[in-house]
Amino acid sequence: MTNQLALLDADLAPLTDTGDGTKAFAADLAYRKLSIVNVIFYGDPGRDGWVLIDTGLPTSRSTIIECAERRFGENTRPAAILMTHAHFDHAGSLEELAQHWDVPVYAHSLEAPFLNGETSYPPADPWVGGGAMSLLSPLYPRSPVDVRLRMRMLPEDGSVPFMPGWRWLHTPGHTPGHISLWRERDRTLIAGDAVITTGQESAYEVLTQKPEIHGPPRYLTPDWELSEQSARLLARLAPDLIISGHGRPVKGPNVTAKLRELAEKFRQIAVPDDARYDHESATPAGGHKDAHH
């Protein structure tokens, strides 16, 4: 069976181009695609107290700073950096940006070993899903970053520091401490890589970003049981707008319906036939397999 659910161009969220490659999809939300991954800026333009969500690749530092200063003002600094997870394409510039701005870094406690220099992620699996991105995946960095001096754990009550009205949701599977962000008021979901809106295994799809609903990138997802639980959690929310770590923002009832279909048929659509269920290598010591919040 196909590993994706096709969307229409009409399902793409309306965007405002700010002129530097950053695109706004809500008054207080904008994103910048940096090579193969998205970073997200939360906060009203021209004001302090904003939040950077994920930090892109190791080459992304200067572009992120430039985009932030254009959006929020010269010499701006965020109130915090928030990590959906710590894979190389999401945490590549984290150490440099956290030091440059001298700000706290928030993440789930189960992601802490990958952010404090302790633990490397399990090896990628190049044989799931096909495509050049999958075949190259053993070359992707998987060593931990180290921001232990600035690291903070997300509050247990599900609130998100400096993002009033938002909740964080534990959506593991792609990584043990992966989180997504949810705002009930306008049914906006920042999904991270729990579900994504383009095919990440194929270099062609990464380039064209045809709108589709997918499970998490296959080559870096070691626990498909938890990934299925996470997709079901997100589908129950019935989001109207989704911005994921890979792909363009999508919006509307067809998107909601396709996410529900993905959750219902997750094993047929998202899980590779030869997926490895290597839970031990994906879960740090003391970790658990229960999604919460």
Question: Can you give keywords for this protein?
Answer:
five-stranded mixed beta sheet, globular, Metallo-beta-lactamase, Chain A, single chain, eight-stranded mixed beta sheet, RibonucZ/Hydroxyglut_hydro, 293 residues, Metallo-B-lactamas, disordered C terminus, alpha/beta
Topology:
Blueprint: E1 5-6, E2 16-17, E3 23-26, E4 29-34, E5 37-42, E6 51-53, H1 61-72, E7 80-82, H2 88-91, H3 94-101, E8 105-107, H4 132-136, E9 151-153, E10 166-170, E11 179-183, E12 188-192, H5 203-208, E13 212-213, H6 224-237, E14 241-244, E15 250-251, H7 253-264, H8 266-269, H9 279-282
Parallel strand pairs: 6-7, 7-8, 8-9, 12-14
Antiparallel strand pairs: 1-13, 2-3, 3-4, 4-5, 5-6, 10-11, 11-12, 14-15
Helix pairs in contact: 6-7
Protein name: Glyoxylase-like metal-dependent hydrolase (Beta-lactamase superfamily II)
InterPro entries: Metallo-B-lactamas, NDM-1-like, RibonucZ/Hydroxyglut_hydro
Region (Disordered): 271-293
Average the pLDDT over all residues and give the rounded result: 90
Major beta sheet, strand line-up: 2-3-4-5-6-7-8-9
Topology pattern, helix = H, strand = E: EEEEEEHEHHEHEEEEHEHEEHHH
Number of domains: 1
In percent, how helical is the residue content?
10-25%
Our measurement of the CA-to-CA distance between the termini, rounded to an integer number of angstroms, reads: 32 Å
Our Rg estimate from Cα atoms comes to: 17 Å
Strand content: 15-25%
Total beta strands: 15
Biggest sheet record: 8 strands, mixed
Given helix and strand content, the structural type is: alpha/beta
Shape: globular
Question: So, CATH architecture?
Answer: 4-Layer Sandwich
The DSSP helix count reads 9
Low-confidence stretches: 277-292
